[in-house]
């Protein structure tokens, strides 16, 4: 009897944790699949003529003639891929052939077997042994081409920081009010400017 009683509770205890574990393991897999970044692929037998704008990671296995803009994601050029045009990306991996400028916000990697002709502008660059590169490299993070290409991201960050640090007296609202009075009647303009200065 004593042995039977001992065996019964462990069976119940073992059965109880299994059900919650099964449920909890199902939930993270659902969350993981929904959190996965999406990916666009241009297949090896596909040729694209024209510009590509992508808000997700992009893999090019085929041929592209045009500008590729993927400023917040990764562009990957496969070993048999070919790009004739400029590429603007957050991160770039090149294993195929590129003729054009590569402007990368974070890191560009030119893998073994890749052939690149053009200008590479990236603060971090890796040229692997066995890659072929003809052109110029600029790794200055303050490069004008890099700033112009990714101005939207840096400009919005700067504006947000400026608005958060502005005090009530120095807020841009006063400037906006003064600009608004320029189109008003001259008599009203003096009254409005006097109120804005108070």
TrEMBL record:
Q: Name one Pfam family in it.
A: Bactofilin
Q: Bias regions of kind Low complexity — which residues?
A: 1-40
Q: What is this protein called?
A: Polymer-forming cytoskeletal protein
Record the organism: Halomonas campaniensis
The text of the family note is: Belongs to the bactofilin family.
Residue runs in coiled coils: none
Do you know which InterPro entries this protein is assigned to? BacA/B (IPR007607)
Region annotation (Disordered) ranges: 1-50, 160-198
Top-rank taxon of the source lineage equals Bacteria
